[in-house]
Amino acid sequence: MSSTTHLGTGLVAPQATAPEVPAAPAAPAAPAPHPRRRLLVGAALAGPVALAAQYLLSSAGLPRDDAGPWLAGLAEDPTAQTLSVVVYLVAMVAGIAAAATVALACGRRAPWLSGIAAALLAAGSVGGGGFAGMRLIAGVLAGEGGPAAAETWAAVQQGPPFLVLGPLVLMAVVGTVLAAVALVRARADVTVWAAPAYLAGFVLASGEFPTAVSVLGEALVLAALVPVARAALRG
Question: pTM value?
Fold first, then answer.
């Protein structure tokens, strides 16, 4: 019996080994917003709340209304009127924070437009703060009462205070429109409905409508600022 040896008999073919693929590095976590930015955004959201409270505290009208009836409305509840002015001042400070928040949220998509809008809105808040001081003076005149007080306030309405502060408040109107346009351009970062809600809320809360409508307007502004604030924190 012959035995034949075949080459390769009993050998196991080596198994192919795939090259090791290095694991992809994990994406770095987004940095947490700076506490100062959180404070800024929180102040911005407090603005519509303060303005709504101001409307609930005072329904006497606007400083440009007829002097006699407006002063008579202020004299009905001086304490509530003073509180409303304090709350209004808080809202004006918060308005500057809201302007900066809009600029941060829209800075990537509409840097120039949002910056101009923020500057105009801040100027409007300064003008509103000036009118708050005028309302405190009007409260003193309302306490005195009489035709002389009405004549004094009518003279103020025609004088330098209104001529200086009035254009600043008008800047807030232009700034609001520009901010709404900036929000439209930044809708991918914010949300689609923020711009119309912001603009509609501003119109309803202009003080030209009953208190309930004004409060509803501020609620719309607050709702619009929530996604804006989120975008500002992400930025």
Answer: 0.83
